[in-house]
UniProtKB/TrEMBL annotation:
This is ABC transporter ATP-binding protein. One of its GO terms (molecular function) is ATP binding. Keywords: ATP-binding, Nucleotide-binding, Transport. InterPro entries: AAA+_ATPase, ABC_transporter-like_ATP-bd, ABC_transporter-like_CS, ABC_Transporter_VariousFunc, P-loop_NTPase. Residues 5-234 form the ABC transporter domain. It comes from the Bacteria. Pfam families: ABC_tran. It comes from Paenibacillus mellifer.
Length: 308
């Protein structure tokens, strides 16, 4: 059976003055957390805004839960989506947290006041403070609490941890995991925080220069490459086995980076040459993304659930 999608971008394009974002192709499977990662200015926020319809694409298509919309998004659909933008919207600036929550409770039929109160307590957000007088972190915590209390089917989070202290950050991670325990919840999160990706994401989509380069399942992504250190001078870039893409010769060690499925082959080839492996490690997220941007995507799994 085909996997249902919460969001589909099909050749979606926004033409800016300086940059074009798109044509974008992305599928966000229902019931999962997809992390949008990529360098500054690559288009992550623009993707979020187009999904939220605060920004209209100039070309292409967006499908929300399989639905295409020709004009304005119907209220019933909008009420299923909550959005925490990178910078808070100004309309509620002069409201207290309490008043803004009341305003939102009328908008979202599934608003959960009990959850909102519990989150405000947990995050220690002042209820009677006007939103524009709150600290950056307090405002962020209010936005996260209110977005979760709306109990949306789709939650769009644009760099949600920006400004959060480590306790609030941990609280947010716990709450988002709790949120996902519900049925059919989907989160699209734009983030630069590797730990957030590790703890939350099911899939990771890489955005670069206004394109989605691809999407990979998290565990598969994190185990896609291995770095192997051997003593210098022991290998030449010309005789490296398949899947070995780098050979950095330092004064005393040579680092090889190899696709996980070819690691055994590389190890055997090194052993045949009498070369001893000094150290092996998995690559960090930033290193994996850098390789991907350089044209070395993670290897695809034998069976793909939802990869672009
Ligand atoms: N309304 C718009 N129409 C067209 N282009 C826009 C619009 N808003 C922003 N852009 C451009 O799109 C590019 C991508 O910006 P965007 O904010 O989406 O990047 P980002 O990946 O979220 O970056 P960051 O990681 O720094 O938050 C920028 O060069 C920006 O100038």
């Amino acid at each position: 059976m085909e996997q249902p999608m919460a969001i589909e971008l099909i050749g979606t394009l926004k033409q800016g003055r300086r940059k074009t974002i798109g044509p974008l192709h992305l599928q966000v499977p229902k019931g999962y957390i997809v992390a949008l990662v990529g360098p500054n200015g690559s288009g992550k926020s623009t993707i979020m805004k187009m999904i939220q319809q605060t920004l209209r694409p100039d070309a292409g298509e967006i499908r929300w839960f399989g639905q295409t919309i020709s004009e304005v998004m119907p209220v019933e659909l909008r009420q299923q989506i909550a959005y925490v933008p990178e910078a808070p919207e100004s309309e509620e600036n002069h409201m207290t947290a309490e008043r803004a929550a009341e305003f939102r409770s009328h908008w979202y039929p599934s608003w959960d006041e009990e959850l909102f109160e519990a989150l405000m307590d947990r995050f220690d957000v002042p209820r009677k403070e006007r939103l524009n007088r709150m600290s950056k972190g307090e405002r962020r915590k209010f936005e996260i609490a209110a977005s979760l209390a709306a109990r949306p089917k789709l939650l769009l989070l644009d760099e949600p941890s920006s400004g959060l202290d480590p306790f609030a950050w941990k609280g947010m991670i716990d709450e988002l995991r709790e949120f996902m325990a519900g049925e059919d919840m989907t989160i699209l999160i734009a983030t630069h925080v590797a730990e957030e990706v590790k703890r939350l994401a099911d899939y990771i989509a890489l955005v670069h220069h206004g394109q989605v380069l691809g999407m990979a399942e998290k565990d598969q992504l994190f185990s896609s490459w291995k770095e192997i250190w051997i003593r210098s001078g022991g290998c030449s870039p010309d005789d490296l086995p398949e899947g070995t893409i780098l050979c950095v010769d330092g004064p005393s060690v040579t680092k090889l980076v190899v696709q996980e499925q070819h690691e055994g082959q590389l190890q055997r080839s090194l052993a045949d040459k009498g070369l001893q492996v000094m150290q092996t490690r998995s690559l960090e997220l930033d290193e994996i993304l850098q390789l991907w941007i350089q044209g070395h995507p993670p290897a695809k799994p034998a069976t793909e659930a939802a990869v672009v």
